[in-house]
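Fold it.
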Amino acid sequence: MSLKFRLIIMNFLQFFIWGSWLITIGGYWFQNKGWSGTEFGAIFSTMGIASLFMPAIAGIIADRWISAEKLLGVFHLLGALCLFFMPQMATPLQMFWLMLVNMMFYMPTISLTIAVSYSAMKKAKMDIVKAYPPIRVFGTIGFIVAMWTISLLKVETTAIQFYIASFAALLLGLYAFSLPKCEITKQAEQITLVDSLGLRAFTLFKQRKMALFFVFSMLLGAALQLTNAYGDTFLHDFKKIDQYKDLVAIRYPAIIMSISQMSETLFILTIPFFLKKFGIKNVMLISMFAWVLRFGLFGLGNPADGLWMIILSCIVYGMAFDFFNISGSLYVETQTDSSIRASAQGVFMMMTNGVGAILGSSISGLLIDHFFKSSNGNFQWHGIWFSFAAYALVVAIFFAIFFKHKHDPSKFETIQL
C-alpha cells in the first residue's frame, strides 16, 4: 500500500468520525431528547474548551515522550469509548461532561494527523506543498460521506450516529499504530514549556493591528459553529408542517447540509487568487458578508419553493468558512516573525475555535431559549437566523472601520495551499 493511500485513509477516517455526529447531534438533542437550547450550547462549547489547551499539551507529549502516530491511536481509542457510551447519558449535564472528555481526546488529533502526514512525507522526500492538499481533501470527503451515511440510514435523530462514530474512531485508533513512526527530536526536548504552549506569541497583542485581528477572529469565530449546531435541527423542524414533511430535503437534511462541505473543497482553491488580488482585509470582509448571506438565506428559505435559498446558503458557506479560516492563518503566516510563527497560529486557532466557539455556542443557546422559543417550545427560526445575520453584519461593519491594513501582493506570491 502506498504512503499516499495510507495517509488518505487516515484523513478520511479522521473527519468521518466528526461528520458522523457534529451536524446531526442537534436532531438527537432536540427531536429525541427534547433538552434545552442553553444546554445544547454548552455541548458545542466543549470543542472550544478543549481547543484552549489540549492541542498544545498533545504537541508537547508528541514532541518529547510519545510519538505522534501512537498518541493519535491512543486518543482515538479513548474517544471511541466516550462516543460508545454517549447514548447512555441520561441528563444534559452527564452528556456535557462526557462530550468534554471526548473533545479533549478528539481536538488534538486534528493537528496530530497533520504532524503524522508531514513527518511521513518528509521521510519519503515528497513535495509537501504539492502532495498534501490532495491527501487532506479526503478528510472533507470523509466528513461528507459520514453525513450521507447518517442521513441515508435515517438515524439523524437516534443514538446510532454515536455508535457509527465510535466504530470509525476504533478503526482509526488501531490503524494509527501501523502508520510511519514520527521521531522524537532532541531539539524538541530543549524547547521550554513557555514556547511549547505558545505563550510568547501573546506579545502580538501589543501590536494594535494584530490585537484587532485576533479580537475580530474571536468575534467571527463565535459565528462559525452556529449553522453546524442548528442547521440540521432547522430542517428537521419542518417535519411538523404537513406541506413540508415528505419532501426530500426533510427526509435527508444532512445530505442538503453536506453541500456546505462540498463548497469548501472548491472555494479553498480560489484563496491564493483572492488574497493576492484583493488583500486580507477585503477577503475577510467578503467572508463576513458571506456569513450574513449564509444566515439570512436560511431565515428566508424553506424546503419547497425556497429550497434554492437553503442550497445557495450552503454554497455560500464554503466562501464564509474558507475565506476566514484559511486566509486568516495565511495572514498570520505573513505578519509574524518566524521564531513565533507556529505559536501565533496557535493563538489564532485559540481565539477562533476556542474563545470564539465557547462564546458563540453558549450565548446563542441562552438567546434562543429566552427570545426565540414560543410558549409551546417551538423554535422561531426566522428570528434566530436573522439575529445571527445581524450579528455578522455588525462585526463586518466594525471590521471595515477599525481594521487598517495596506495590501502588499508580494507577500502572498510564494504562498500555496
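The CA atoms of residues 29 and 35 lie 6 Å apart.
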